Amino acid sequence: AEEIQAAGICGSGIIDLIAEMFASGIIDSGGKFVPDTPSPNFRATGRVGEYVVATAAQTSTGQDIVVNQQDIRAIQFAKSALYTGARLLMERRGVEKVDRVLLAGGFGAHIDKTAIIGFLLFLGQDDVRLLALAFNIVDAVPFQGRCLNLPSQGY
Question: Is the model's pTM score more than 0.90?
Answer without folding.
Answer: no
